[in-house]
Design a protein that fits this description.
The protein is built from eight helices and 15 strands. With 381 residues, it is an alpha/beta fold. Strand 4 and strand 5 form a beta hairpin. The structure holds adenosine-5'-triphosphate (ATP) and magnesium ion (MG).
Length: 381
Amino acid sequence: MNLLPLRETALSVARLKLTNFRSYASVDIAVRAAPVVLAGPNGAGKTNLLDAISLLSPGRGLRGARLSEHTRRGPSAMSEALWAVAATVTRAGESYEIGTGLVSAQGSERRQVRLNGAAASSSADLGDVVQMLWLTPAMDRLFIESASGRRKFLDRLVLGFDAGHARAATRYETAMRERARLLKYGPRDPAWLDGLEAEMAEAGLAMAAARRETAARLNRALEERTGAFPQATLSLDNDDTEDDKTGDTLKERLARARIRDAEAGRTTVGPHLVDLAVRHTAKRADARECSTGEQKALLISIVLADARELARARGGLCPLLLLDEIAAHLDVVRRAALFDEIADLGTQAWMTGTDIAMFAPLKGRAQLFEVADSFPRPISE
Ligand SMILES: Nc1ncnc2c1ncn2[C@@H]1O[C@H](COP(=O)(O)OP(=O)(O)OP(=O)(O)O)[C@@H](O)[C@H]1O
Ligand SMILES: [Mg+2]
């Protein structure tokens, strides 16, 4: 089978090796630079494979699981019970060896990251090599569940454009925790609180500005979109840093909120309360009022717009897409449109589904793996 090659600049996984990772004792697969379909029954190990790939980027991956949860359970698990994911990734014609895993050292477990044979200082180093976006079935409820999920989603979008966003968020949260501790246990030293609130205001304003910038950028990209996926409009709710423009600064509002925050046992102003609001542009409806399929389509629109924007910002380098159970909820027209758009993006999208027939329009454009009992077998056409 001759697959259309991806662009030279494309980012793709060429080889993926899992050891002791969830349901996989050991697996080693070679992949071509083309979209990938993983089809198989429930429990076959499809999501586990995507989860492993997602750990090649900074953070906890698409399940957001604790690192120890990835360790394979069961009678044949190694006694040290640690896991490893290794991959060869090609990017702009260059090849990178990436490894990550959980190792046990002096009685404690820690994550190890290696890049081209050398220890990388943190998983964040991987972010320079591998960018990826994902959609999972858990995200189908993004618009109707709590604001924290939407904030996390928004912050991941921001991080794609602004690596400093993570630092600002950490600074903000550290100062916020320290302030909360002082308000609860004392001493309520005004100079100390002033210092922490100044830190929160500075980091918080940077965070809020980066979020607004990303939302505006994605709105421009979403406006350009046509086709089967609906246009979406993003905005930020509870963005009280906007008030800084009218002279009532976050620092002043934090200072005024001290007594109230001490009584409430939480911080009642600041960008940690921001929510991402998404509207279905044409229907003039809030995403949470849309049908399940429409909500999925809105999310796909946002992710595809983001993928294009990221590619534009990185000289054409499109992020990997991990699309778990992507065909669920999409009608036949939307499914075909999604596959066309993935082909047009020229990225290695990894898609999973229980029914291989759903991926028929991808014939000749993707490589198919049938996954059964945690064994992915390439299917030749
Ligand atoms: N740490 C672990 N050790 C051993 N097995 C695990 C571990 N974590 C998950 N599993 C098992 O891995 C199997 C495959 O899970 P996975 O989520 O990859 O399935 P899937 O193919 O995506 O199925 P579905 O179509 O239902 O989403 C499941 O049976 C699950 O219980
Ligand atoms: Mg799954």
